[in-house]
Amino acid sequence: MIQLLSNNLDSMSVVSKVILKADDELRYPTSGELEGIEQFLQTGQQRIRIAEILAENEKKIVEQASKLLFKRRPDFRAPGGNASGQKEYNQCLRDYRWYLRLVTYGVLAGDKDPIEQIGLIGVKEMYNSLDVPVPGMVEAIRCLKEASVGLLTKEDADEASPYFDYMIQEMS
Q1: Fewest 10 Å CB contacts: which of 78, 139, 141, 146?
Q2: Tens-of-pLDDT digits for all 172 residues of the chain?
Q3: φ, ψ for residue 27 (rounded to 5)?
Q4: 91 shares a domain with 25
Q5: How many separate domains does the chain show?
Q6: Beta strands in 7-138 (DSSP E)
Q7: Structure pTM?
């Protein structure tokens, strides 16, 4: 059972990671690891609140972010642009929703691993194969971040922003 759990270590919570690491090394968790768990648990309500706000406002966030992107990059909606047709436009909005979900996964886990494992592995290659400009997707995520953090308190925005920034950095 422990070995099975160890194979999924990267996609687990902070608590699971500490327990499995200590077990792999046949020791008790260190005081530093326990402090990390305590901090993780203390921020649980905040992480849940952020995820709820983002999920409950998905439509508003996606709408605002897409308006922001297409205002900055009208060439995407112009004839021949990557979101010029209705189908392409809808696919763009679908991707917005997907990236917003990825951020909520990261916030809930208190870790970037779910974002990386679920959403970023191979994403550049996928967009390149579909002739979707990756810099445009990076700009789209920036717009998604702006629309999202605008709904959060400063403290919550500070907690959520690094997950958007991680996606931006990894896709750049």
Answers
A1: 78
A2: 333 333 343 446 788 889 999 999 999 999 999 999 999 999 999 999 999 999 999 999 999 999 999 999 999 999 988 888 899 899 889 989 999 999 999 999 888 988 888 878 777 777 778 777 888 889 999 999 999 999 999 999 999 999 999 999 998 8
A3: -145, 170
A4: no
A5: 2
A6: none
A7: 0.84
Q: Whole-angstrom distance between the N-terminal and C-terminal Cα of the chain?
A: 39
Structure token pair of residue 115: 């974002």
Q: Are 31 and 83 found together in one domain?
A: no
Nearest to 103, CA basis, from 167, 39, 45: 167
The residue whose two tokens read 């995520």 is 141
Q: Are residues 124 and 56 in the same domain?
A: yes
Map tokens 């309500």 to a residue: 45
Pairwise CA distance, residues 119 & 164, whole Å: 12
| Token pair 């605002």 in the structure block, residue | 64
Tokens 């608590």 locate to: 15
Amino acid of residue 159: E
22 and 75 belong to one structural domain: no
Expressed as residue numbers, the domain containing 112 is 44-171
Provide the residue type at 72 as one letter: R
